[in-house]
Amino acid sequence: MIEGRGAEGAHYNADFTADADGVAGTAGAAEAAGAVEERAVVQLVYRPGTADTLAGLRVRERIKRTGLLLRGVFLALWAAHWLLTTVGRGKVDGVSTLLFLLIVALTWGYTRLQAAQVQRIIGWQGEYRATVSAAGITCRSDHSTLIQKWSVFQGYRETAGHFVLLSRDPNIMCLDILPKRGVREADGVDRLRALLDEHTTRV
After folding, report:
1. Would you report the helix, strand and coil content of the chain in percent, each value rounded to 5?
2. What does the pLDDT look like over 43-74, one tens digit per residue?
3. pTM to 2 decimals?
4. What is the four-CA torsion angle of 130, 134, 136, 137, rounded to 10 degrees?
């Protein structure tokens, strides 16, 4: 009887050890999966500024080119008009010169004026908290939450300080600007770039 109990005890202990190993293995697998999932998500916290909007608008200009072309033609026409007027009169007219310089300043600073206008619209919302994952981009502030799937974007372009995502519509009416300074993790910028490369394309 003592030997039988010993055998049963050994069998019980073996089963218990196997169950414990199984539970530990499952817990380890879940922990590993959680770590992988956590690395597949990048969090950004930032307060949008005029420089951020300006970076996005400049990217859109370089891709569309239409706005740059139209402003260049407009400025060239004014320059030709001023030059012909000056040659025709035989002297430089102060009023026409002042008007021409004003046109140059407005044409040159048009994008900055746009950025300042956008900043007045969004600046009051304060701090933004963006989450980039396989599902898309979710951006929250104290007043709103915007969720966008990857299918919204035609692609992205990287600058020195930003990732700029461009909407799929022909006029690129929507820009998502992700400042690199908003990433808090040491390898966050690299992981963010990898997420963008995986779910959209560089343009």
Report:
1. 60, 20, 20
2. 999 999 999 999 999 999 888 866 666 777 77
3. 0.69
4. 10
Residue with tokens 């420089």: 51
Could you tell me which residue, 65 or 15, shows the higher pLDDT? Answer: 65
Q: Report the alpha-carbon distance of residue 100 to residue 84 in Å, rounded.
A: 12
CA distance 165 to 139: 13
Reported as type and span, the H/E element at residue 175 is strand 175-179
Cβ neighbourhood burial of 71 (10 Å; 0-12, 13-18, 19+): middle
- Single-letter residue type at 113: L
The model's pLDDT over 21-34, given as tens digits with 9 standing for 90+, comes to: 554 454 444 443 34
Which pair of tokens denotes residue 110? Answer: 């048009």
Write the DSSP assignment of 47-65 as a string of letters.
---HHHHHHHHHHHHHHH-
Q: Can you tell me the distance from the alpha carbon of 34 to that of 88, in angstroms, rounded to the nearest whole number?
A: 77
DSSP 183: B
